[in-house]
Each structure stands twice: as structure tokens, then as C-alpha cells.
């Protein structure tokens, strides 16, 4: 299915209110990206209050992985060394 053919519908009012509240909650928070462990592409954006595990599919390499957003914090001065 092409993007032009995707059908959308109007959001129900209760869901629209939840989305608005979520946007308001993260407005002043810093956003960081978690990289795909396979190709190091920025795969998912998380905010300061994000906790728990997330399953994601990398848009670049197409591989799926589960990441723990708490343990994936980057240390100051930390460099990633790629070995092939």
C-alpha cells in the first residue's frame, strides 16, 4: 500500500485529549535518541521521564530489538567503538 492510499480517520475526543496532555507533559523535557545496536542509526526518541522496555524496528536495517530505556543512557565522554 502506498502512502497516498493510507486511510485515516478523525481522533476520538478522549484520545485527542490524551495526546494533547502527553505533548504538554514533554514540552520542557530533553529528548535523546537510542541507537540501533546493529547499525547505530537513531531508531527511537525518548524523553527524560521514559522508563522501561521498548520494542522497536530500525527504519534503516529493518532489524527488531528490545531496549531498556533506563540502561541505554549515554555516559559523558563515552565513545562507541565499532568492531567488524
Overall spatial form: flat
- Uncertain spans, ≥5 residues at pLDDT below 50? none
Oligomer: single chain
Helix content estimate: 10-25%
Rg over CA atoms, rounded to whole Å, is: 17 Å
Strand/helix succession: HEEEE
Mean pLDDT: 83
What is the distance, rounded to the nearest whole angstrom, between the alpha carbons of the first and last residues?
A: 36 Å
Strand content: 25-35%
Main sheet: strands, sense, barrel: 2 strands, antiparallel
Number of helices: 1
> Strands of the largest sheet, in order across it?
1-2
The tally of strands reads 4
| Secondary structural class | alpha+beta
Structure description:
It is a single chain. The chain has 84 residues and is α+β, with helices and mostly antiparallel strands. The protein has a domain of 45 residues. Helices cover 17% and strands 25% of the residues. The chain has 1 helix and 4 strands, in the order αββββ. A hairpin with a 6-residue loop joins strand 1 and strand 2. 6% of the residues are buried. The model has no long low-confidence stretch (mean pLDDT 83).
Amino acid at each position: 500500500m502506498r502512502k497516498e492510499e493510507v486511510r485515516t480517520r478523525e481522533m476520538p475526543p478522549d484520545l485527542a485529549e490524551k495526546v494533547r496532555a502527553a505533548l504538554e507533559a514533554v514540552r520542557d523535557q530533553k529528548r535523546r535518541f537510542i541507537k540501533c545496536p546493529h547499525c547505530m542509526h537513531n531508531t527511537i526518541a525518548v524523553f527524560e521521564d521514559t522508563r522501561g522496555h521498548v520494542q522497536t524496528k530500525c527504519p534503516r536495517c529493518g532489524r527488531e530489538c528490545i531496549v531498556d530505556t533506563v540502561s541505554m543512557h549515554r555516559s559523558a565522554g563515552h565513545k562507541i567503538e565499532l568492531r567488524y
